[in-house]
Amino acid sequence: MKKKVVVLTGAGISAESGIRTFRDSNGLWEEHRIEDVASPEGWHRNQELVLDFYNQRRRQVLECKPNRAHIALAELEQKYDVSIITQNVDNLHEAGGSTQVVHLHGELLKARSTKDENLIYDWPRDILTGDTCEKGSQLRPHIVWFGEAVPKMDEAIPLVMKADVFIVIGTSMVVYPAAGLINYAQYEIPKWLIDPNDMPLPRIPNLKFINQRATVGVDYLVKQLLEQA
Ligand code: OAD
Question: pTM score, two decimals?
Answer without folding.
Answer: 0.97
